[in-house]
Write a structure and sequence with these properties.
By secondary structure, this protein is of the alpha+beta class. It has one domain. Helix content is about 30%, strand content about 20%. It contains two helices and four strands; from the N terminus they run ααββββ. The strands form two sheets. Strands 1-4 form a two-stranded antiparallel sheet. A two-stranded antiparallel ribbon has the order 2-3.
């Protein structure tokens, strides 16, 4: 039994490639998964957006509760990672000798960074 690993960047071609594998005689497709290619870059962008959002909220609170923010005294981040979901797929024409490769249901990965910033109040 032979096995191969394929990295495909054009998601529009996933079903075509899988159909070609089935047509060439492959009878098993295992561990089909879609992943974010540059997760560190996306995490950095998400972190910066979270920091900017936290700063805007803190500055709005200055006026609302009549305080002055001082320096940052604590920062924490919960990035919990990014999902690496496995996507379900089904064969066309159920049963043996079906009608070609599987339909791949594409999804969406969300990169989430939650931060907490604690400011000194002056």
């Amino acid at each position: 039994m032979e096995s191969y690993e394929i990295k495909l960047r054009d998601l529009a071609k996933v079903s075509v490639v899988l159909d070609g594998l089935v047509s060439a005689g492959a009878n098993q497709v295992n561990n089909l998964g879609l992943q974010i290619e540059n997760p560190d870059e996306l995490m950095a962008q998400a972190r910066q957006l979270a920091i900017d959002n936290a700063r805007k909220k803190a500055e709005a609170l200055e006026d609302q509760i009549d305080i002055k923010l001082g320096r940052v005294v604590n920062f924490s981040e919960n990035a919990g990672g990014y999902p690496m979901p496995m996507y379900a797929y089904g064969m066309k024409g159920e049963g043996m000798g079906g009608g070609g490769g599987p339909d791949v249901s594409l999804g969406q990965n969300d990169v989430v960074v939650n931060i907490t910033i604690t400011y000194q109040i002056r």
